[in-house]
């Protein structure tokens, strides 16, 4: 199977269209198709902070649920929007406010439609995508080798948020252990969550979140070729959001 795995989109729909076009996908239909039958995969965090979160959700729902032509695993922002739609008490900040503002601008019928589509997408998504034959795992914030095959609460927290310690940095961001530094598993782990300027393979893992919503790039990892393809972001550059 040939895949194009796309990093955290965060509502950057125009960049997504540009990237898939650069990857050779055709937009003659309402969704991108590839002449060589390649499939798209998404590492989560489709929404929040960027300008077109609902358009991204609609497209990914179409590809994954309706057409069954793509893979998706949720990120922490996806989880938060799901809890918002369920009526749980969540804080409307850290990016969720942009998605909620888009949602509030819709008619009641449109709100019900996009809510249904996202909840269907989320509820049918695996915690992480494990393609055993390809020796490949796609997980939003990564996954430890000994967690692969598990779906318990501890693994869910790791996959959504990374290897968090419970402590915070002075800016309020969580302290995370560098799990990839110690990864020694056989499957290749493709993940995102933490924005970096440029991705690189390390210990059979690769982080492809190149901070599209913070003015970096939107990046795809082509598998099995192990090639990286990126397009520049149209968003303002926010240097402090990028981790080394």
TrEMBL record:
The lineage of its organism: Bacteria, Bacillati, Bacillota, Bacilli, Bacillales. SUPFAM superfamilies: Metallo-dependent phosphatases. It comes from the Bacteria. Gene3D superfamilies: 3.60.21.10. The gene is prpE. PANTHER family: BIS(5'-NUCLEOSYL)-TETRAPHOSPHATASE PRPE [ASYMMETRICAL] (PTHR42850:SF7), METALLOPHOSPHOESTERASE (PTHR42850). CDD domains: MPP_Prp_like. InterPro entries: Ap4A_hydrolase, Calcineurin-like_PHP, Metallo-depent_PP-like, MPP_PrpE-like, Ser/Thr-sp_prot-phosphatase. This is Bis(5'-nucleosyl)-tetraphosphatase PrpE. It comes from Priestia flexa. Residues 1-195 form the Calcineurin-like phosphoesterase domain. It holds the Pfam family Metallophos.
């Amino acid at each position: 199977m040939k895949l194009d795995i796309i990093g955290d989109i965060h509502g950057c729909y125009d960049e997504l269209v540009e990237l898939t076009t650069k990857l050779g996908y055709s937009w003659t239909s309402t969704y991108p198709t590839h002449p060589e039958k390649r499939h798209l995969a998404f590492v989560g965090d489709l929404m929040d902070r960027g300008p077109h979160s609902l358009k991204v959700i609609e497209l990914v729902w179409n590809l994954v649920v309706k057409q069954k032509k793509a893979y998706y695993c949720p990120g922490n922002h996806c989880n938060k929007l799901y809890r918002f739609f369920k009526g749980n008490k969540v804080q409307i900040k850290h990016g969720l406010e942009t998605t909620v503002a888009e949602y509030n601008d819709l008619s009641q019928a449109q709100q019900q439609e996009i809510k249904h589509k996202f909840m269907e997408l989320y509820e049918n998504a695996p915690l992480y995508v494990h393609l055993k034959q390809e020796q490949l795992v796609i997980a939003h914030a990564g996954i430890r080798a000994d967690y692969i095959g598990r779906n318990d609460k501890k693994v869910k927290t790791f996959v959504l948020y990374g290897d968090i310690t419970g402590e915070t940095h002075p800016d309020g961001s969580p302290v995370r252990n560098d799990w990839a530094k110690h990864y020694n598993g056989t499957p290749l782990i493709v993940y995102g969550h933490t924005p970096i300027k440029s991705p690189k393979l390390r210990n059979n893992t690769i982080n492809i979140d190149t901070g599209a919503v913070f003015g970096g790039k939107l990046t795809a990892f082509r598998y099995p070729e192990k090639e990286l393809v990126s397009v520049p972001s149209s968003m303002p550059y926010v240097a402090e959001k990028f981790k080394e």
